[in-house]
Amino acid sequence: MIGHKLITKQTGAAGKEVTAVYVVERKYAKREAYLSIIMDRKNQSTLVVASSEGGVDIEGVAKENPDAIKKYPVDYNQGISDELAKQIASGLKFSPEAVPKAADTIKKLYQIFKDKDATQIEINPLTETVDHEVMCMDAKFGFDDNAAFRQEEVFSWRDLTQEDPDEVHASKFGLNFIKLDGNIGCLVNGAGLAMATMDVVQLYGGSPANFLDVGGTATPETIEEAFKLIISEKGVKAIFVNIFGGIVRCDYVAEGLIAATKNLSLTIPVVVRLQGTNLDIAKELISESGLKLYLFEDLDEAAEKVVELGK
Predict the structure, then answer these.
(1) Going from the N-terminus, what domains does the chain have, and what CATH number goes with each?
(2) What is the pTM of this model?
(3) Which of 6, 33, 255, 301 is 20 to 30 A off residue 214, Cα-Cα?
(4) Active site residue: 34, 110, 252, 294, which one?
(5) Active-site residue among 32, 53, 122, 224?
(6) pLDDT for 4-20, tens place per residue?
(7) Is 122 a catalytic residue?
(8) Is 133 a catalytic residue?
């Protein structure tokens, strides 16, 4: 819909009263299509996914009528050519009058995708009206967090009130944190290792209480913040720290664990599995701390122990 905003103002003895009135022109849809631009990791480029069946659950279309979904590989640097844009627009079954407008819209959406460091643009539905206008009636945009430093305007629109406060707090310290419903708190470096850690905890009968990736720049300070997030959940009965010291050093992790255990007066058991850079120094620090930190080098043994302690 296209609208014009009319604001009327009334002033009285009690002060100023502002009333906003919206006048909206109604549009009638002749055809509804689906269009998305996403990252294609397999080909290390971008991909346009389009379907002439829009305005509905696209996952349902993929299941019931997969032939209705078309995929168009796009060279990231060259972008969408006029020819490809017209091909995509025609595949959406728009009328001949609307195809040039749809093609122009597709090219503009791709330019936004590239210029704004987007990871996904999804238009559902992309609509042709009865008078052959082409309009994006609903949209979903995703942007690369790593590009926030050069996309200040885009990230200034972020509405933190719609996000989990703990996850927002974690991001301020470079921590990737997602709450779950289990009993074993997990502190890991690297998303892949974090997923593997959660799997092995479940393998031995436990249930992860969170996904928490401290990344490759973990410091004693960030590790303490990570512990605060973990123990804020009442259901956590034990903590599993699983660190591969490649980029992050094991001794830094050990210092953070010791400081956090002391400063937070931890009473729940902490199982630590370390491998990698400065492991021997880390083991010595933990051993001499006098704290109840269960240190392991084998992943399975550590997972089995933390599940046992969390019962």
Answers:
(1) 29-150 (3.30.470.20), 165-309 (3.40.50.261)
(2) 0.64
(3) 301
(4) 34
(5) 122
(6) 554 454 454 455 555 66
(7) yes
(8) no
